[in-house]
Specification:
Structural class: alpha+beta
Order of helices and strands: EEEHEEHH
Radius of gyration: 32 Å
Helix content: 25-40%
Low-confidence stretches: none
Oligomer: single chain
Mean pLDDT: 79
Strand order of the largest sheet: 1-2-3
Distance between the termini: 51 Å
Largest sheet: 3 strands, antiparallel
Number of strands: 5
Length: 210
């Protein structure tokens, strides 16, 4: 159905050109409806947007998030846990193979304490259970978690979970140093961004007051 004028939607692209000091607005990706000088040239040299990257990358427009370096490892942990749950389900509710000529149905095979199965031969019913991978899964889960901690520089002391009370002083200092370096970089980025925002707000207030 054809929409009336009130229902029509308009998409606006607001482009801030810091090289030419221009503010360009494009409607629906085609029509230029504004091409003026940046009205905020006196505010932070015309840069009114503040960038707050987590981890900047050289020659890249987009920065890397805090979790992005370990995203694949997190997905691997989730897949591993799903596999372990499937293994537990199959252990509790295994595959049952019944010979066709025995007259036994799946309703005759009951898994419960004290259950009795009446069989003519031992191989009339065969239970197929997968190998138990629970212990292997727990060990692999721990290895993956340790990998995340190392990648993010989140040692056990920063988490409040030291492995032992008799750790060497050098190891403790190294782990704390790695964590402090990572956190100090993030804190410095936040501090710089908030300082820039505060200065922009002050300059904007001066513009309106003036």
């Amino acid at each position: 159905p054809v929409k009336n004028d009130q229902e029509k939607q308009l998409e606006l692209w607001e482009c801030w050109d810091y090289e030419e000091d221009q503010l360009v607005v494009i409607a629906n990706g085609e029509v230029v409806i504004r091409d003026d000088e940046n009205p905020y040239l006196d505010v932070n040299n015309g840069h009114i947007f503040v960038d707050l990257p987590d981890m900047s990358l050289l020659w890249e427009f987009w920065a890397t998030g805090h979790v992005e370096p370990v995203e694949s490892t997190i997905m691997e942990i989730a897949d591993l846990r799903n596999q372990r749950m499937d293994d537990v389900v199959l252990m509790l509710d295994p595959v049952v193979k019944i010979r066709k000529d025995t007259g036994i149905t799946k309703n005759d095979i009951i898994f419960s304490p004290g259950a009795v199965w009446e069989l003519r031969k031992m191989d009339d019913v065969v239970i197929e259970r997968p190998p138990d991978i629970s212990l292997m899964g727990v060990n692999e889960d721990k290895l993956l978690r340790d990998e995340i901690s190392r990648t993010l520089a989140l040692g056990e002391y920063l988490q409040g979970l030291p492995q032992s009370s008799s750790e060497p002083l050098g190891k403790v200092a190294m782990l704390l140093g790695q964590s402090n370096l990572r956190l100090s970089m993030n804190a410095q980025n936040i501090s710089n961004a908030l300082t820039t925002v505060a200065n922009i707000l002050i300059q904007l207030n001066r513009e309106f007051i003036g």
